[in-house]
Amino acid sequence: MTQHCGLVAVLGAPNAGKSTLVNALVGQKVAIVSPKAQTTRARLMGIAIEGEAQLLLVDTPGIFEPERRLDRAMVAAAWGGTEGADLIALVVDASKKLNSKTRTLIDQVARRPEPKIIILNKVDTADKGGLLTIAAELQAALDPEEIFMISALSGDGVAGLKTTLAKRMPEGPWHFPEDQVSDATDRMIAAEVTREQLYHQLHNELPYASAIETEKYEERKDGSVAIYQQIRVARETQKAIIVGARGARLKEIGSKARAEIGDLLGKKVHLFLHVKVDPRWEEDRGLYRDIGLEW
Ligand code: GDP
Ligand code: K
Ligand code: MG
Questions:
Q1: ipTM over the 0.85 cut-off
Q2: Nearest CA to 105 among 16, 12, 9?
Q3: Which ligand 1 atom lies nearest to the CA of residue 91?
Q4: Residue 43, in any domain of the structure
Q5: 230 within ligand 1 shell (Cβ under 6 A)
Q6: Residue 114, domain member (yes or no)
Q7: Ligand 3 center to residue 220 CA distance, Å?
Q8: Quick one: pLDDT band at residue 206, thresholds 50, 70, 90?
Q9: 144 in the same domain as 17
């Protein structure tokens, strides 16, 4: 049988559900998810198989108005994710009215030459009237190949979407072995899982003010792995919050992250977390490279 393989760029505003969708299509968690915008900082490729087709799904950071250097790098990574794409999949949160930011994004996507499909996500919490209004507006603005209505969270409509994506992929050999689910290294996965815990366990702006750097990643003879990660923050007060009373918060972040990294890598994990105050981390070129962003 002839193999098919193609690149799908998953674009959308922050929190539209891009990472949740990529995980649903892959059938397992490869991208971190949180209710906070800009959880996804770099580009990550999730790899899904449907029949004879291998789908390379590029999960991107949301597209928004950049304010700081890290923002600019994230938005650049998002648009960069469309390079060479066979299809742009625009994910829209259909449980809310389209706002001016999403409209700006729609205008930008409209100017792209690649074929487009629209994915109206979160139908589980959307009302029917709203859905139809949004669908009509997007149909007029983008002239997409197709519009899907799904819930990435419940999985509703995801199988149909996957079949359609597979049909649209060009003929060509698979790029990855069939059991590979993402292009992330184990080391990157480990750093992302810890970052996800920061998003889940810390309030307000703190996760945005932090970064994870892997200091050491050590495969041991007994099959386990020892991972040393540094959580960088800009101020002592931020460090105090992350560490928590008698270290309780950091311990909780560490134990949740360790369990999940262990599950994902399928091995025993020893995780060592250490918080470092570095007022200039946002200017550290190495950190950007570590998470796959251009400086
Ligand atoms: P991203 O920023 O576009 O990657 O969005 P995420 O995948 O991180 O999801 C943002 C938030 O929306 C998370 O809290 C998800 O659980 C939630 N979410 C994603 N898809 C759905 C959906 O289909 N229905 C509902 N109700 N929530 C969703
Ligand atoms: K998010
Ligand atoms: Mg995301």
A1: yes
A2: 12
A3: 3
A4: yes
A5: no
A6: yes
A7: 32
A8: confident
A9: yes
Determine if ligand 1 sits within 6 Å of the CB of residue 19: yes
Residue 46 near ligand 1, beta carbon < 6 Å = no
Round to the nearest angstrom and report the end-to-end CA distance of the chain.
Answer: 43
Do the annotations mark residue 163 as ligand-binding? no
Residues 135 and 199 in one domain: no
Q: Report how far ligand 1's centroid is from the alpha carbon of 34 (Å).
A: 7
Dump pLDDT digits (tens) for 163-192: 999 999 999 999 999 999 999 889 988 999
**Do residue 70 and residue 117 come from a single domain?**
yes
From 133, 168, 203, the end of a domain falls on: 168
Residue 233 belongs to domain spanning: 186-290
CA distance 58 to 50: 16
Q: Is the CB of 29 under 6 A from ligand 1?
A: no
Three-state DSSP state, 231: strand
Same domain, yes or no: 118 and 206: no
Counted domains in the chain: 2
Are residues 121 and 152 in contact, defined by beta-carbon separation less than 8 angstroms? yes
Helix (H) or strand (E) holding 192: helix 186-201
* Distance between Cα 34 and ligand 2 center (Å): 5
